[in-house]
Design goal:
Order of helices and strands: HHH
Helix content: 40-55%
Structural class: mainly alpha
Distance between the termini: 89 Å
Number of helices: 3
Strand content: under 5%
Largest sheet: none
Radius of gyration: 33 Å
Number of strands: 0
Length: 78
């Protein structure tokens, strides 16, 4: 049976009072504040969004141009 201790181990309790060296703290904080550059694989897998904004009038015009192109291609194939 495993006993779970509710109190901290007395031999390890003195490790709580150790202060880290100031240069270590400064180095870690600057490393955390600088953004990491993604790797090539992360950059390639990153999704991107393409947004196309069309007014209803532009959509009707585009449909008419496509219809005319299909009619022109159909007429030249005969």
């Amino acid at each position: 049976m495993i006993e779970i201790l509710e109190q901290p181990i007395s031999e390890l309790a003195h490790l709580r009072d150790v202060d880290p060296p100031p240069n270590l703290v400064a180095r870690v904080m600057t490393r955390l504040s600088e953004p990491r550059l993604p790797s090539l694989w992360q950059w390639l897998r990153h999704p991107f969004c393409i947004e196309i904004r069309l007014s209803p009038l532009a959509l009707i015009g585009l449909a008419l141009v496509l219809a005319a192109a299909f009619v022109f291609v159909g007429a030249t194939l005969r």
